[in-house]
Design a protein that fits this description.
Blueprint: E1 3-5, H1 19-24, H2 27-46, H3 50-65, E2 67-76, E3 81-87, E4 99-101, H4 107-114, E5 118-120, H5 132-137, E6 144-151, E7 154-164, H6 172-238, H7 242-270, E8 277-279, H8 281-298, E9 301-306, E10 314-316, H9 318-342, E11 348-357, E12 360-367, H10 374-377, H11 396-406, E13 410-416, E14 420-428
Helix pairs in contact: 2-3, 2-6, 3-6, 6-7, 7-11, 8-9, 9-11
Length: about 425
């Protein structure tokens, strides 16, 4: 039995390897290994999916020491076990469900307990080698090098490389190299875990805010419904049936708000497959203007349309266009109305313009409201983000942008504080 135990090996930068290691490398091998370390560092900086990151690190480790294949085990601090996270050998998925105790009965467990590399030149002669791994994967292991991954004295896991391609077994140089790579892998795992924890915290925060926004919004709608029910009961009791018309209008408006919320939530979660038909874009704009004109007049806001008469009949989904325009106009009117409450001397105005060129429809919705504050511009299209408090859900603009982009278009914000906002919609619209 030929077993080599390596103690007091510390991961160090490649250029600081021991002199005996440098003597054994030719120029080509030095260059290849230097490139390996650069690639691994680039992987760590650019990949945040932990499984994908570890697969890439393992492939680089296999290549660097000239091994046939490799595997990586992570340490589970809750169960005090090692489990296979990556196994690159053929049918490696067969062993990914195996967990090893943290003791000296396995090669990986021994290296983890003692926290030093273990170089096995003949696994068949080592009592710690479990033959079931080869039996399950139909892979023949001849020799193996196991190196612990440590991060600030904490055990992260074990890297194993199997079957030296050139030579009888792995060398001291291979141990030095794999120790460096194991240190990089440990950093990569820690970074990925931190990233995932931060991402989860951000998602929970967004979810909490979303629930709060929608809850307040629905509460306001229910208040309107409750008021209309009270009016109806009072009208019936007092036989004042003219009040029923007013109560019905409140109920219709409340129903419309709930229907819009449900539609937006479905659109954002699932998207919407377009149903293109022959469409007169300017006619759509004028229909929406008619829908909004009473509300605009009530808020003393001028609603201007500047339509390009040369726009041809195009093939688009009119429902998507209608939904986006209604959203943009509603947001514009809310902004201008609030702005005028604080600045009554301002004449509120919203302008909708259309143009068409080379198969691309452009629609601009501009207002002379307060403009979007710089701090809010990067988040204006983020789902559930709203500046309207309980009167908004934060879904309208997010849904609009999603629908437009899913169909090859774009929705862009241009805004200047104190001077107004323009939403510019670009939408592919082939001529009929």
């Amino acid at each position: 039995m030929e077993i080599e135990r390596v103690e007091n090996v510390v991961a160090k930068p490649f250029l600081h390897l021991a002199p005996h290691a440098l003597d054994t490398f030719d120029r080509e091998r030095l260059l290849r290994l230097a490139k390996t370390f650069v690639r691994v560092e680039e992987i760590i900086d650019s990949v945040y999916d932990l499984k994908r990151l570890l697969e890439l690190v393992m492939r680089e480790s296999t290549r660097a020491v000239g091994a046939e294949t490799s595997s990586l085990l992570l340490y589970d601090s809750d169960t005090h076990e090692l489990y296979f996270e990556v196994a690159l050998e053929p049918k490696g998925d067969k062993i990914q469900q195996i967990r090893l105790p943290m003791d000296e009965t396995s090669i990986a467990g021994w290296a983890a307990v003692h926290r030093v590399p273990l170089n096995i030149k003949d696994v068949g002669a080592d009592p710690r080698w479990n033959k079931k791994f080869d039996q399950q994967t139909q892979f023949v292991t001849r020799n193996l090098l196991a190196v612990p991954m440590l991060r600030q004295d904490r055990l992260i896991g074990i890297i194993e490389v199997l079957n030296k391609l050139e030579g009888d077994s792995f060398t001291d140089d291979d141990i030095d190299i794999l120790m460096v790579l194991s240190g990089l892998a440990a950093i990569a795992i820690e970074n990925a875990h931190l990233y995932q924890k931060n991402l989860q915290a951000e998602r929970l925060a967004v979810l909490g805010q979303a629930v709060a926004n929608i809850s307040h919004y629905i509460k306001n709608v229910l208040t309107g419904l409750k008021g209309s029910i009270t009016l109806i009961e009072s009208a019936v009791e007092d036989e004042e049936y003219e009040i029923l018309k007013k109560a019905t209008l409140v109920m219709k408006r409340s129903y419309g708000r709930i229907a819009t919320l449900v539609k937006d939530m479905l659109s954002y979660s699932k998207g919407r497959d377009p149903s293109p038909v022959e469409t007169d874009v300017n006619a759509i704009v004028m229909e929406i203007r008619e829908l909004m004109i009473d509300s605009a007049n009530a808020k003393e806001i001028e609603l201007e349309t500047l339509l390009d008469p040369t726009i041809p009949i195009v093939l688009i989904d009119p429902e998507i266009l209608e939904g986006v325009l209604l959203n943009l106009l509603t947001n514009g009117m809310d902004a201008v109305y609030e702005w005028r409450q604080a600045n009554p001397h301002v004449n509120g105005k919203i302008s909708v313009s259309t143009s068409y060129r080379d198969g691309m429809l452009t629609i601009r919705v501009s207002d002379n409201g307060p403009g979007v504050p710089r701090k809010d511009r990067s988040r204006i299209f983020v789902a559930f983000y709203t500046t309207k408090g309980s009167s908004g859900t934060g879904l309208g603009l997010a849904v609009s942008k999603k629908l437009v982009e899913e169909n090859g278009g774009s929705l862009v914000l241009h805004s200047e504080e104190g001077k107004g906002t323009t939403f510019e919609l670009h939408y592919p619209a082939p001529k009929v």
